[in-house]
Amino acid sequence: MKLSVRAQILCMIILTLMVLSSAISVVYTKHLNRVNFVELKKQQAIKDSKNIEWGQLQLEESTFAASSEIEKRAKNQLNMSQPQADEIVMIRQ
Fold it and tell me: How far apart, in whole angstroms, are the C-alpha atoms of residue 93 and residue 80?
């Protein structure tokens, strides 16, 4: 079965359009991939900074807990207490 010249040209035009459409789709998909990769890196940086902040907060919490523990031991084991306002003496140089 032999196609006419007109049918061959029409087939070539359709195939060319399909190839161009496919090429544009590939370029667009790569662009979206790059945009998403950049967003991923931003989110990972945010996550890392939040993890650092969380670690600092945990360290701060443990410091406060240790301070509270020291105060409790000073009261219980050494019979120490918070001085009253009239017992506090200010020393100036």
Answer: 27
